[in-house]
Amino acid sequence: MNRLSLLFLATVCAASAFATTYVRVEKDGSKTYSDRPIPGGQPVELAQAQTYSAPTTTSTSSGETPREQQLLEQMDDFRYTSCSITPANDTSYTNPESVGVGVELSPALRAQDTITVTVDGQPIPGGPNAMSASLTTVYRGTHTVSAVVKNRYGKTLCQATSVFHVLRPSLNSPARRR
Predict the structure, then answer these.
(1) Which residue in 56, 25, 57 sits closest to 40, CA to CA?
(2) How far apart are CA 17 and CA 105, in angstroms?
(3) Residues in contact with 78: Cβ distance below 8 Å, sequence separation at least 6, in sequence order
(4) Which value, to the nearest 10 degrees, does the dihedral of the CA atoms of residues 29, 30, 36, 41 take?
């Protein structure tokens, strides 16, 4: 039933697309359009609807590989077997003078790869590819250390995250005595 209705609708639309259109200008200046001749109406020539044809694409033969595909194939599937961060996850420090932050990779960082180590979203001191640092000003609270190793194409090869806590008891709130 639905197919029959759809076929009928398509036929009516196609027939109306080729029909002549008539227009009549009323006394108040408004225009009346119709697909049938109307008294005082004149046939109107309607312009064709604007269409667009997509440009043809050049197909590559089976022996030719597109440049993008060649670049993807050049990207190696190298992976680091181990990527760990110090301090270990959920480590707590009480009144530390400094906190050591570092990354251990296995195998070692390759020359063409880059590593970014951040503490609370900020790069650690030591510049690009720094793998360890001693943080001397660490405020109380919870801090997140993240490390991301990427190859020269920007593909992530290794990533790790760790959280550590710094406790700084205050003289204003000493431990409760019983």
Answers:
(1) 25
(2) 70
(3) 110, 151, 157
(4) 0
- In this predicted structure, what is the pLDDT of residue 78? 78
Are 102 and 141 found together in one domain? yes
Answer whether residue 17 shows pLDDT above 60.
no
User: What is the length of the chain?
Assistant: 178
CA 24 from chain center: how many Å? 55
The C-alpha atoms of residue 27 and residue 25 are separated, in whole angstroms, by 7
Largest CA distance in the chain: 106
pLDDT by residue (tens digit) across 113-138? 999 999 999 999 888 888 899 998 88
- For residue 58, pLDDT beyond 70: no
Of 141 and 128, more confident: 141
Residue 108 to residue 75: CA distance in whole angstroms: 19
Give me the domain span that covers residue 24.
Answer: 16-45
- In this structure, is residue 113 part of a structural domain? yes
Residue 64 lies in a domain: no
pTM above 0.85, yes or no: no
